[in-house]
Write a structure and sequence with these properties.
Length: about 230
Amino acid sequence: MRYAAEIFKPFTQYGSSPSYSIFDGQSTVELKGYPGYGFALNRLDKDIMRPIGLAAVAIWLNENFTKSNVSQEKIIMIEEAQNIFDDEDVGGPFAETAYREYRSTNTGVCAVTQGLEVLRRSNAGVAAVKNSPIKIIGKQESIDIEMIQDELRLSEGEADFLLNAKRGEVILRIEDESDIVFTKASNYEHMMFTTDPNDPAFYERKELLKEKLNRDSALEMQRQEGA
């Protein structure tokens, strides 16, 4: 047992390499009743552990999430979608299948990426464009617009707008209709989603998450002691 524990240790929070710690918390959690949850793969080792984690997530979403309750509307958000779309072994095929087939299980898919060029260089990107009736497009570089303008059916005026759009200005396209929309995050939304390490709200979120994890750990310990 001790030998097995030493072999297993690198894959836990007590190992020397955080990027390998795929078992850094509870192995069994109850997800029912939560409005949403996320799977973070960005801290896993890129060459070995991340593909394993991605495969596990893809299988779980396909078998346990999309098919769990077909009568319930569900949505899968893919953040930094270029990392998933460009993965030829697992991520790309998963995303392509999701866009083409998951509607049959009442599941929508929303991919979020900064550069539009990713939507053209992979089968998953092409599937995303063809099977997304709603598209929200913000400021883009000219090379990105040139590569994808025809696929998105952007007019010259819309393309020019995207070149010069300011923060919060986007084009909202639903099927073949589009309009210019200004969006502004609430203070709470900004705090939850900002990725700017120079923003005080970035560290406010970190502290809130740390406090929550500490509370959850304390409650779990109390539960185990009382069991």
